[in-house]
Structure formats: structure tokens, C-alpha cells
Amino acid sequence: MTDPRTTVVITTHNRRPELLRTLDRLAELPERPEVIVTDNGSTDGTSTAVARHHPRVRLLRPGRNLGAVGRNLAVRRVRTPYVAFCDDDSWWAPGALSGAAGLLDRHPALGAVTARILVEPDGTEDPIVEELRNSPLVGPRWLPGPALGSFLAAATVLRTDAFRRAGGFHPRLWLGGEEELLAADLAADGWWLTYAEHLTVHHQPSAARDSTRRRRDGIRNTLWFTWLRRPTRPALRRTLHLARTVPRDTASLRAFAEATAALPWVLRERRVLPPEVEARLRLLEDSQRRSTARRYTG
């Protein structure tokens, strides 16, 4: 069973063993998807290894670490109606790409499908899955699963054209919760996002990660999204909530300092979301205040 509807896009930086394992898994999928890898300036021989072991993979080498914008670079080369994102330490289960494409085929107003995430090597559910499964948002009756306010890039298939029209991932956010802004812009364009319980992504977290920087960037990006898209009062309320609840450490202090220093460009680019999208965000915000799976504080 091959399926030409979806291209898989991966960004990587100095994780050669993990990436090769992921490419091995993707090569075994019955869908046989085209795969595009953006090597974000790796210095560990990643590009050479990919060219040697997976010559059918399209390899992009921008020469520097673009973060999430490396995905934008790859999507410019995508020729299929759907694009599946994948991290270099995660991979799609057999049949999941076809299942997501089928949902997108059947529902023209559906913009993105997020799968269930199993953490390897034990195969346990990622804690965020419970939030996805029990999303408080109410979508239209045709929606095939719970409505979502955002998505996890490594576990999501999107419409290629919708991604492009929304502008892709914002170049200033780099990495760390960068999906929130794009998800809001997709919703503002009229697209719905959903969670699909029957589709699976496997994630075996790499040990090669800077968790402190990721948390710092996640807090900063949450602030930037809030100031870029939320009305004044909700933006102030969320900013104060973050200030009270994030860990009181150097990483959080630097996140707030970086966010504040960027106010000139943030105010220039500020574009408040439509009222119906803002209403969904408020509902999600109330729910997430009770959540223990906050990616920007964990």
C-alpha cells in the first residue's frame, strides 16, 4: 500500500543516530511517503550519513540552524496536498499517515490532524494526550474528533496550502511552543484542528537536548504569541498569570527579558484574532490553568 498524498518533513541538528533511526522507521511504512530533511547546520556528519544510508530522502542544507523555519524551507518543496511533520527522534506508525490523509480528504474545512503520542521505549502515552483527548472546545458536528486550539508539530498532518497561506512558522520564534501562533492563524483563516485517537506517533526523546533553553524559549514564545494576537485585557491577564506561575529562576527571567526587548517589532506585527477564535482561546486558557502538562514550565 503506497499513498502519494503526504510528504514527511523533518528538521534535525546534531542528532545523527536518532535521525537515521527515524528514517529507517519511515522507510518501512507501507505508505512509502516522500521525506524531506532540513539539516539545520549539523556538525556531526548528519548530511553525509543521510545521503549514504537514505539516498531517496531529499536533503536540504541551509548551512545554519533555522529552528522551526527549517520546516518552512522544506514545505516550499512539498508537492503533495498534505504535509506530516516529524521530529528526528519520532516516527509515524504504519497506516497513520493514510488515516490522517483520509480524514483531510473527507472534511474540506479540516486543516490539521494530530495523532496520539506514545513515548518509547515503554510505549506509554505522553501526558499531553490526555489534554488532547479531553479538549474543552466544541467543534462543528462534522468534526471527526475533539476540536483543538493548537497542535504538536511532531504528531500532526496539515494541509500544505493552509500551512503556506497562514505563513508557516514565525521566523522569530525559532523553537519552543512555536505551534501556538500558527494554530491560531489557521483558525483565523477558518480551519479546524482535531485530535485522532486511532492514529499513532512514536517518540523516543533524544538525550541530546537543551531542556533549559527549550523552556526559556517556550515561555518567551508564549508571551510573544499573547502580545501578537490576544486583545489587550486577555493579553495582560495571561502575562500576569505566567509571571506568577513559571519557575522563579534565571531561565524564566531571561525569557521575560527577551520577550520585552522585542516589543517594538511585536507591536508592529500585532494583529488581534477574530472574536470567535479568541473565545476558544479563553476556554482553553481556563482549562489549562488546571493542567499539569504545561510545556513551557515542565
Automatic annotation (TrEMBL):
InterPro entries: Glyco_trans_2-like, Glycosyltransf_2, Nucleotide-diphossugar_trans. Pfam families: Glycos_transf_2. The keyword Glycosyltransferase applies. Transmembrane segments: none annotated. Residues 7-131 form the Glycosyltransferase 2-like domain. Coiled coil: none annotated. The keyword Phosphoprotein does not apply. It is an enzyme of class 2 (transferase). Keywords: Glycosyltransferase, Transferase. Its EC number is 2.4.-.-. GO terms for molecular function: glycosyltransferase activity. Belongs to the glycosyltransferase 2 family. This is Glycosyltransferase family 2 protein. It comes from Streptomyces kebangsaanensis.
